[in-house]
Amino acid sequence: MTDPGRRPDGHSLQHLPHHDGSATYVPEQAPALGDTVVVFVRVPAVSPVRRVFVRTTPDGEPHFAAARIDRRTDHEVWWRAEVQVRNPVTTYRFLLDEPGGNRWLTALGVVGHDVPDSTDFRLVAYEPPPAWARDAIVYQIFPDRFARSSDATRGAGAELPDWAISCDWARTPVIGRGPETPYQYYGGDLDGITERLDHLDRLGVNTVYLTPFFPARSTHRYDATSFDRVDPLLGGDAALARLADAVHARGWRLLGDITSNHTGDGHEWFVDASSDRHAPERELYYLDDVTGDYESWKGVKTLPKLNWGSTELRRRFTEGPDAVLRRWLLPPYGLDGWRVDVANMTGRRGRDAYTHEVAALLRAAVVGTRPDGLLVAEHGHDHTGDLDRDGWQGTMNYTGFTDPVWSWLRADNSGTGDAGAGAAGVGDLPNFLGVPGGIRRRDAGAVVATMNAFRALVSWRSYVHSWQLLGSHDSARIRTVVGSAAGQEVAVGLLATMPGTPMIFAGDELGLDGVNGEDSRTPMPWHRPESWDETTLGAYRSLLALRAAEPELRYGGLRWAYLDPDTLVFLREAPTGALLVLARRVAGVPVRLPGLPIAGYAPNRYGGAPTLRADGDGVVTLPGDGPTFQVWRLS
To answer: What is the pTM of this model?
Structure first.
């Protein structure tokens, strides 16, 4: 019989056994080869599970070991097992022995059929990412569009190059498509960022990520002409040092953006390589000696592709204090790490398959320069095969977070809402991957399935050190996707409360819109504070403050509790306690959940809903209004 307090097409997930890589189930300390790690499985007391076995695959051969009951509570049985860390990436899963047959518990969940080993849980013995990254809240800045310094505003900036199209900060609209888009120059600089750090402080971020600051022939600067200096248009080397000092004085971190896949065709290396057949730079690229043609990023000839089969390229990027990756991590700049542009293509070209060794090489260079350095990879699609290999420490999780959140919260085809001009074309909005037909509105079941599918193929460590984002300088803005402040609040709620590192693109907190990456590179409207969406800004501040205040949101596991097409409910649990999160895209009926770890009552921590209390049967009822985002502390 259908529970009258639950939607007919919804279902509770509380009855399922659970394990993840968080501290409730696995010790926080990174394992070393040869260690024996104790892991736990949570099994509901009503479950028919009679025995539990852990299956590992040391050196590729399956091995089973019996788990034993560690403890019982009113609602659960906790099983304890041991896993020997035999390989750098040690995989394991659980066999659940039940009267009706066996089921597997893997990172994908509980299944009643055999599944490939690719979804097994993972213990990773490679050197872990820096500890500070778990507490990071990242703010992405596109320097040309963030802020002009006081000196630049008074006309003391550098002379413009011939490629630049001078634009008025307050009056010139951004061209979203067309040949002029890379050349619109608004004049933001690094000192302008330094002067606006108080805004970031009030927002609640603690890590600043800059898109490239090297000289180039465009304002996006992914076509670097040198890696040896900071673009004079941004203030030069001294301005980066001043910004780094100001960021570090607040106890924050500063990350750069490096293009390991290509340079610009104006880069000094490429100029030498293409003009002299005998130049040592020749081997750095894929140049045809007969035709003079060369490989480039997606056929864009201004972005010649680097050849990582070159020993000389590897030396220039990683060896010595003046190497590309190292010099900017050292004083007086002291960057705290890099985001790697087009990491998915780096080292890949036809038969060449250098990606994994290049990733490990770059990571070794970063941590060899500063042990607490971070290396995060850009992947626009499936990143799972490139993580857990002693290289990239995390990724920009577009496919496992951005796209599913967009598809669940996207506005309908009518384009109604308060997103202004950006909402008008939302029905035809392409997603980040450019899939024909644009974003398709999906129900919560598809959202959870997508998130789980990508999460299950990497270690918990790689998952929580990856950046979760609602958009970036390469995508539409979240306000245009969802079409309203209420929809954006739900999206930001998920960003702030799910595992992983939240990344905010500058201006999203003000409710700015944009239908694609170029259109979204909007100058910050410092001159028009009356245009800011104060409701959205307040939601960002409150939700980021909540994440900073509640350790479960940074260190806790993820256990789905309930879903129906319009509703997501999950728990973030850690040894410190548990939080319950409710996200709704539209109003529905109240949700009744039994067996929650609630001690008497659960106060609301965000959203303003009433305190939760269990009834005489131990059932907690969540309100049915929406769209809404609510968080309660259970214990």
So the answer is: 0.95
